[in-house]
TrEMBL record:
<keyword id="KW-1133">Transmembrane helix</keyword>
<keyword id="KW-0472">Membrane</keyword>
<feature type="transmembrane region" description="Helical">
    <location>
        <begin position="224"/>
        <end position="241"/>
    </location>
</feature>
<feature type="region of interest" description="Disordered">
    <location>
        <begin position="103"/>
        <end position="174"/>
    </location>
</feature>
<keyword id="KW-1003">Cell membrane</keyword>
<protein>
    <recommendedName>
        <fullName>SHSP domain-containing protein</fullName>
    </recommendedName>
</protein>
<comment type="similarity">
    <text>Belongs to the small heat shock protein (HSP20) family.</text>
</comment>
<dbReference type="InterPro" id="IPR008978">
    <property type="entry name" value="HSP20-like_chaperone"/>
</dbReference>
<dbReference type="GO" id="GO:0005886">
    <property type="term" value="C:plasma membrane"/>
</dbReference>
<dbReference type="GO" id="GO:0006952">
    <property type="term" value="P:defense response"/>
</dbReference>
<dbReference type="InterPro" id="IPR002068">
    <property type="entry name" value="A-crystallin/Hsp20_dom"/>
</dbReference>
<feature type="domain" description="SHSP">
    <location>
        <begin position="7"/>
        <end position="112"/>
    </location>
</feature>
<keyword id="KW-0812">Transmembrane</keyword>
<feature type="compositionally biased region" description="Pro residues">
    <location>
        <begin position="114"/>
        <end position="125"/>
    </location>
</feature>
<feature type="compositionally biased region" description="Basic and acidic residues">
    <location>
        <begin position="161"/>
        <end position="174"/>
    </location>
</feature>
<feature type="compositionally biased region" description="Basic and acidic residues">
    <location>
        <begin position="138"/>
        <end position="152"/>
    </location>
</feature>
<feature type="compositionally biased region" description="Low complexity">
    <location>
        <begin position="126"/>
        <end position="136"/>
    </location>
</feature>
Length: 257
């Protein structure tokens, strides 16, 4: 009788995988260290799956095995799928039916640094214009002189003004001559003191000025007359009242029978 071969013990193995994308096809890569080409099997099922299987001995009757299935995209041509094994990698290539154009990347404009705004130079204030120098105004003639010219005529008004200036000059000379006595007389005259004529102006001149002012001013004269009439009426009314009171106070004598 021959010896029986011991049964194999299988351990599951999960290889690492990734994709390499290129223009006309994509490559599915499976990393299978320690495997050989004869130990691998690549199939495409009728349901549209890629099936990759493999097994190899490790030690004695211990083996490792793996099984991969991935769906095939409709964008791939499954009739032209190819596979090769090199450098411990199983490379399965999937040709593309529709090659999608690579999107054209527009060149982005270079970002220019934003420059800080340049400082605005200070605006110098415009030189102030000099105010025009007003022309010298002609000296107006005194109002009194204008009125005198309209009333008496230019020549008569001039003579009148000269006379007033001469009188003013003489009065000033008298002030210097008599000193404080003349000044006291003037102050008493302005205050209305009755004795001013003894020191300053004569009484006759003061009386003439006061009476003359009533004669030349009708309104002042009329006010004076009204005042005198009112005073007279008050006096008469007082006498009448006194007479009535006296009459009421005297008892009448009875007539003789």
């Amino acid at each position: 009788m021959g010896t029986r071969t011991p049964a194999r013990e299988y351990k599951a193995f999960k290889p690492t995988t990734d994709w390499a994308r290129e223009g006309g096809f994509d490559t599915f890569r499976i990393h299978l260290p320690g495997f050989t080409k004869d130990q691998l099997k690549v199939q495409i099922s009728s349901t549209g799956y890629l099936r990759v299987t493999g097994e190899r001995p490790v030690s004695g009757n211990t083996w490792i095995q793996f099984r991969l299935e991935i769906p095939i995209s409709s964008n791939y041509d499954d009739n032209n799928v190819s596979a090769r094994f090199e450098n411990s990698f199983l490379l399965v290539q999937f040709p593309k039916i529709i090659v999608q154009a690579q999107p054209h990347r527009e060149a982005k404009p270079a970002v220019q640094p934003i420059k800080p705004p340049e400082p605005t130079p200070p605006v110098e204030p415009a030189p102030a214009e000099k105010a025009p120098v007003p022309a010298k105004q002609t000296q107006e003639k005194p109002k009194k002189s204008t009125e005198d010219e309209a009333k008496y005529g230019p020549e008569t008004a001039l003579q009148k003004k000269k006379s007033e200036d001469l009188a003013q000059r003489k009065a000033t000379e008298e002030d210097h001559k008599w000193g404080e006595t003349a000044n006291i007389g003037k102050r008493m005259d302005k205050a209305g003191t009755s004795d001013a004529g003894d020191i300053g102006k004569p009484r006759a001149e003061i009386y003439k000025e006061n009476v003359g002012s009533y004669v030349t001013n009708p309104k002042k004269l009329r006010n004076l007359m009204n005042t005198m009439v009112a005073a007279l009426l008050i006096v008469l009314l007082g006498l009448y009242v006194k007479h009535v009171l006296r009459s009421l106070g005297t008892p009448k004598s009875d007539p003789e029978l």
